[in-house]
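Severity: low
Component: inverse-folding endpoint
Summary: output formatting inconsistent between runs
Steps to reproduce: submit the following structure tokens with default settings.
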């Protein structure tokens, strides 16, 4: 077995790859921007914000996101800080997010959840959170906008625990909020980091920390706030969970930090703690057992996202992959497990702040995009290892909106099938057929309704096919796990629909949860699943 090169090992050890999740407007972009500022990747705050309208927003169908002022696609940013090499996977924050958002979380080793202190846990956060818990990855919470009136601290923590079902452990504790925001109390150091907005937009500015037992505190914080803090700490120490790195690593306890991204308060403190508490690239499951980046010397990666037409003139497709082990070199030849042959990975690129750049080398933990001649699918494994293993597939997430789709001009059937199949292969939509008929009727399922608009736009602009879409009332889809199911004999409710996916797997569409329960009652032994594997 080839030896693991120390240089590669050290490169991987410095990697921290995480996703940022939040409800729109909670401050994810602002926080990301401040992280980049500390890493020296950008010079002025504000460079990330304009990304949807800046020159690198290359594809035309991204016009849709420009028009609506949202981000549909996820991006990856890399920067260095304090000896670490950090990869941030940005997930679209709009409620019309797509399956891509879920898949992005499959490529991360941990997640940072940004919460608006005046709002608590919101719908979007809840959905994304489910995927994090499914993977048992560490989750860190940054409660933002403390410079504005906030909810009660206990209420906020309670909200996270109740809504998301995870224990919390505040690393620091806010003293007041809004106009009365005095700063945060560091529970381990027993000191107060005094609020100042002098760092707004820059890394320079005043950071003042004063020990809580220092007499000067009496001058800095009003009596009533000091007393309140003491009382709150007593309560928290008595009833709250203690910090436990083991539980954090297993995703069962979320360390919580308070701050204000806009004024750059508490951001660096958060970054420093977070980098220590999170881990370097983790082992991943494959068909030949667990692959540990600290032991596997060869390059391996899996595809988690495919993006077409980044540049319309070239009709190109980029496959984004997460490197899990070893070193990547531009132009290297790797074995594509699912394709069963060797391929050369060309035009590797990485996102640096808002710039796309061509890279020569990358390591386990990094995310790269390579040119895809149309051979890759979501979940595919690439490796130079002689062991030839395949990473565990990425689950298909259940769509929640369905529509029957057909082409307006019947002469364009061929282009229609080609276009819709390619878009489905990229994972932007899922397509299903009636169980007993052929390709006549196509049912499209999406996670967010915005994907319907993207589909229509892309079919018209890239494949020159106009389509008609009739929405269907189904909201739930279930894969049938039983291997030997006789679909003809399966009896459900009258509004249930039997369909199959591209791989001919049988599925059921339901209008409501009651129908699912009835169908299960009527068919003994029927095993239904929310994720397609
Ligand atoms: P998102 O990516 O999660 O959607 O949120 P984003 O960072 O774009 O922030 C949403 C709004 O909240 C922005 O204001 C931003 O300036 C503001 N914001 C972010 N962090 C803080 C904070 O710590 N305190 C306060 N008071 N506001 C914060 P906007 O008016 O929508 O945009 P802009 O015109 O200020 O850029």
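Observed output (run 2 of 3):
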């Amino acid at each position: 077995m080839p030896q693991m090169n120390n240089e590669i090992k050290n490169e991987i050890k410095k990697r921290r790859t995480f996703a940022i999740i939040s409800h729109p407007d909670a401050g994810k972009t602002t926080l990301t921007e401040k992280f980049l500022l500390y890493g020296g990747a950008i010079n002025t705050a504000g460079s990330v914000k304009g990304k949807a309208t800046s020159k690198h927003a290359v594809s035309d169908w991204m016009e849709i996101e420009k028009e609506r002022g949202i981000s549909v696609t996820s991006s990856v940013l890399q920067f260095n800080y304090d000896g670490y090499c950090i990869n941030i996977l940005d997930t679209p924050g709009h409620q019309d997010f797509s399956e891509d958002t879920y898949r992005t979380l499959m490529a991360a080793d941990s997640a940072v959840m940004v919460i608006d202190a005046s709002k608590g846990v919101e719908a979007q956060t809840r959905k994304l959170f489910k995927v994090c818990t499914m993977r048992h990855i560490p989750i860190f919470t940054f409660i933002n906008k403390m410079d504005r009136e906030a909810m009660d601290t206990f209420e906020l923590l309670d909200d996270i625990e109740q809504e998301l079902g995870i224990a919390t452990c505040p690393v620091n504790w806010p003293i007041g909020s809004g106009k009365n925001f005095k700063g945060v109390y560091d529970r381990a150091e027993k000191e107060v980091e005094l609020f100042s907005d002098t760092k707004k937009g820059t890394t320079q500015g005043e950071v003042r920390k004063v020990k809580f037992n220092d007499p000067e505190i009496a001058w800095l914080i009003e009596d009533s706030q000091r007393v309140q803090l003491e009382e709150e700490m007593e309560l928290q120490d008595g009833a709250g969970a203690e910090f436990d790195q083991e539980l954090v690593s297993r995703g069962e306890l979320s360390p919580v930090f308070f701050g204000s991204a806009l004024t750059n308060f508490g951001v660096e403190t958060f970054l420093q703690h977070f980098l220590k508490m999170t881990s370097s690239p983790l082992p991943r499951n494959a068909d030949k057992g667990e692959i540990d980046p600290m032991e596997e010397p060869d390059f391996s990666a899996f595809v988690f996202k495919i993006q077409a037409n980044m540049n319309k003139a070239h009709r190109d497709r980029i496959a984004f992959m997460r490197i899990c082990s070893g070193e990547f070199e531009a132009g290297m030849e790797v074995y594509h497990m699912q394709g069963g042959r060797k391929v050369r990975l060309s035009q590797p690129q990485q996102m640096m702040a808002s710039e796309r750049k061509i890279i020569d080398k990358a390591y386990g933990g990094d995310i790269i995009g390579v040119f895809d001649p149309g051979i890759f699918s979501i979940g595919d494994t690439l490796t130079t290892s002689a062991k030839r293993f395949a990473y565990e597939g990425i689950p298909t997430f259940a769509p929640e909106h369905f529509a029957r789709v057909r082409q307006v001009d019947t002469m364009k059937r061929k282009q229609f099938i080609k276009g819709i199949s390619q878009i489905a292969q990229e994972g932007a939509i899922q397509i299903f057929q009636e169980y007993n008929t052929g390709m006549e009727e196509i049912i499209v399922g999406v996670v967010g309704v915005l994907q319907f608009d993207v589909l229509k736009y892309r079919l018209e602009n890239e494949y020159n096919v106009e389509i008609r879409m009739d929405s269907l009332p189904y909201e739930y889809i279930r894969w049938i796990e039983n291997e030997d199911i006789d679909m003809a004999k399966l009896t459900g409710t009258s509004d249930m629909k039997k369909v199959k996916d591209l791989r001919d797997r049988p599925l059921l569409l339901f209008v409501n949860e009651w129908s699912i329960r009835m169908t299960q009652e009527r068919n003994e032994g029927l095993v239904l699943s929310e994720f397609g594997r």
